[in-house]
Amino acid sequence: MKCIQCGTDNKLKDRTANQGRCTKCQHRFAFEPTSMGKVKITDPMFAKVISDISVNNTLFFTPKQLAYFLDNRLKSRSAITVISGVFTYIIINMWVSLFLVSIISGILKINAFPYVILLINLIYILIIYSNSKSSQLNDKARRSNARYLQILGAFILIVGILAGLFVYESFTIFAISVIIGMLSLYLGKRQLGKIGIAQEFLFQQNQLQDWITRWQQINGLIQKILPSPRQENTHTTVNPDVTAYSFDRLVVCDSAAIAQFLIANNFHFENNCAILSITGYPQNIFATTMQMVRRNSDLKVYALHDCSPQGIRLTHHLRSNDNWFAGSNITIIDVGLLPRQIMANKRGMFIQSDSNSAVAAKQLPVDVRQNLSTEELQWLDNGNFVELESFSPQKLLQIVQRGMVSTLTLESDESNLILIGDTGSDIYAVESFG
């Protein structure tokens, strides 16, 4: 493992002999991958993850965004390339078949080679198929396994048919080869057609916090990682000259963490909008900001939320709650996330699923459920959800900004919007997310 301070490559025996320090500059290593169990992280990898997620230390990010980013980086290493797949396939067929053939041929007194090869290939196909639908892999890795199944199936068909017809002159070998090859092709095609498979994290959130703590003890603070949103109850006095103005646009988030993230990255300055959370963040200027935005009858409100039962309720809450915009006819635009946006997206979002989310989905108000399609309701009722923090900071900022820009000419161009609800032409949903 290379030292992040001087670049010296320290082998395990060097790190062990030097009490976990670099042999050249004596800088302590934060991680020892050989003692980490299933998830293995090196110092250079963690440093690269921090640099990449912050875009070279220019963007703030939340701890949960770091968890998603690191998890995706770890899972992407499981994607099968053609070269690595072919190499593994050859090694397995050579060594395992030789071992089994010698045993089976000795017992049954027959040439067991073709049958052993076909059996090994069948088992190998089932293993790759299992990986192609594993919740421990991301969409990229699963799809690479599915494509590999197709390549493997085509190879088995060609080689098996030729061997059955011309080498062994055996219809049995020919038939088995066709069955196994077609099975591999079918399974590969089937898995490539599947989107939206739920995922699980490779590590617990408390593990990540332990890694962050150790990293900062050794290498100093991670400058762009955000703390938990502070509950500031003290009212901040704002200059009356400022409060005399208003905003044309307001972004309301379903979590304080996302509101904090947008504010920390100056999204409000760059897009000339106010940012609040439905929970009242930031508390010290919340009342003042609400007073200012209510002054503008042409205000556009952008709802930004997780694709979860709680998040889906956001626009309904904004429209029906007296503390927000009940009784007003301002325009509310649901930027997302919505189930239809998840299902239409081919990038492979990090979908999770649990029973609590399924129960909460079935308890959504009738006014909320009637604005969702049958497919969307089924998706939610199955317990599926996607968090905004699963997007990298740069991607999330770009998507939200693009969603707002696409609605600037709302009156003349509604091609990217869907009218929802039956309260008039004042609640819209953005068609796509990213």
How does the SSE layout of this entry go?
Blueprint: H1 12-17, H2 43-53, H3 63-76, H4 82-108, H5 113-132, H6 139-167, H7 171-192, H8 205-219, H9 240-243, E1 249-253, H10 256-264, H11 267-270, E2 274-277, H12 283-293, E3 300-304, H13 309-312, H14 314-320, E4 331-336, H15 339-344, E5 352-353, H16 355-362, H17 366-369, H18 374-381, E6 384-385, H19 393-405, E7 417-419, E8 427-430
Parallel strand pairs: 1-2, 1-3, 3-4, 4-8
Antiparallel strand pairs: 5-6, 7-8
Helix pairs in contact: 2-3, 4-5, 5-6, 5-7, 6-7
Rg estimate, integer Å:
28 Å
Q: How are the strands ordered across the major sheet? A: 2-1-3-4-8-7
- Helices, by number, come to 19
User: What does the overall shape look like?
Assistant: flat
State the helical fraction. 40-55%
DSSP strand content = 5-15%
Order of helices and strands: HHHHHHHHHEHHEHEHHEHEHHHEHEE
How many E strands? 8
Mean pLDDT: 85
Q: Could you give a short account of the major beta sheet? A: 6 strands, mixed
Q: What distance lies between the first and last C-alpha atoms, to the nearest angstrom?
A: 37 Å
Query: Residue ranges: pLDDT <50 for 5 or more in a row?
Result: 411-415
What class, by secondary structure content? alpha/beta
Q: How does this structure look, described?
A:
The chain is of the alpha/beta class. The two termini are about 35 Å apart. The strands form two sheets. The protein has a six-stranded mixed β-sheet, with helices on both faces. It is built from 19 helices and eight strands. It has helices spanning about 10-15, 45-55, 65-75, 80-110, 115-130, 140-165, 170-190, 205-220, 240-245, 255-265, 265-270, 285-295, 310, 315-320, 340-345, 355-360, 365-370, 375-380, 395-405, and strands at about 250-255, 275, 300-305, 330-335, 350-355, 385, 415-420, 425-430. The longest helix has 29 residues, at about 140-165.
